[in-house]
Amino acid sequence: MPTPPLPSRRGLLFGTAAASAGVLLTGCTSNENNNGDEGGTRRADTAQDKPGKPVTIGFAGPQADHGWLNAINDNARKRAAEYSDVTLEITEGSNDTAQQIGQIETLINKEVDVLVVLPADGKALTQVGLKAMRAGIPVVNLDRIFASPQAYRCWIGGDNYGMGLNAGRYIGERLRDKKNAKVVELAGLDNLELTRQRTQGFDDALKNYPNIEKVARQAAEFTVESGQAKTAQLLQAQPSFDALWNHDDDQGVGAERAIRQAGRDEFFMVGGAGSRHAMEAIEAGDGVLEATVLYPPTMAASAVDLARALGQGKGVGGLAEFEIPASLTLYSAIVTKDNVEEYLPTGFV
């Protein structure tokens, strides 16, 4: 799973759209320079759907050993295929740092126009990001951030702290009138910074609801098997509670399995990341899963948009600046039965 920057919120906050991966650059509407705008300002050129200068984008990500990571690759490929002026050079993907560095160096040697990199380890791959930038190849750093801002031209990624915050707010509002409400948390890998950020956001949100107590927490491993085992432990230890927040929809499949086997339904569950399975379960409304907090893999499609804009020397539609921003943090929207149809097309398998 991704590891974004600490929740200091550098740069702008952008919301993700429901049905289109390209919303970040939606409106990338015109190549015209309008020197006669009122107020004497000139509009920045923006990337847009009409073909422009050909751009070769090198894409390097980690091994797609998780539904979300597989969706990252799919979103990048599909977005690039929409542009007749984009050629995507995509690597096989690896969780081995040395191998991924080698793959990126190959793309640098091929002299691609722009690089999009989701590093398996942001700190370990910082030097190869710096190498690309020094070679004149702008880097779009996707989600897991490099250790130096000099290693990328633009960062785009999700908001793990915001995931926890919004999950906590949703649960808090649902339970605000219940006395002595109890919640439990099924986290991800505790050795990952992203897990700590999600928990911190959740805990911070719950501080605003003094009637709610978090009575238990288990850390799973982002797998179905770990989700089932750790949820079974939570259920055995807690004979009754009101809500469960699960950090990851893949491990949530196992959590749902454990809940069904235990015959428990006195609580509701909020998931994380936004899998298609979770959204379909929310839509069906026949289980405990009531909502999920997005960590949208559509960010890879938007990264391709940004890379194309960089390669063509364009800005972002709807913004006055001539250049694309240095940092874009996606919003962690809450998907419920009320809006699931809108978000379902973005659900990953």
Kindly summarize this structure in a few lines.
The chain is an alpha/beta fold. The chain has two domains: 175 residues, Rossmann fold (3-Layer(aba) Sandwich); 135 residues, Rossmann fold. It has ten helices and 13 strands.
Task: Give a written overview of the molecule.
This protein is an alpha/beta fold. The protein folds into 2 domains: about 15-160 and about 295-330, Rossmann fold (3-Layer(aba) Sandwich); about 160-295, Rossmann fold. The protein contains 10 helices and 13 strands. A 7-stranded parallel beta sheet has the order 1-12-6-5-4-2-3, with helices on both faces. A 6-stranded mixed beta sheet has the order 8-7-9-10-11-13, with helices on both faces. Strand 10 (about 270-275), helix 8 (about 275-285) and strand 11 (about 290-295) form a beta-alpha-beta unit. Helix 6 (about 225-235) packs across helix 7. The chain is elongated and about 60 Å long. It holds the Pfam family Peripla_BP_4. Its main location: other. It is found in: Cell envelope.
Radius of gyration: 21 Å
Mean pLDDT: 87
State the CATH architecture of the largest domain.
Answer: 3-Layer(aba) Sandwich
Helix content bin: 25-40%
Q: For this structure, what is the CATH class of the largest domain?
A: Alpha Beta
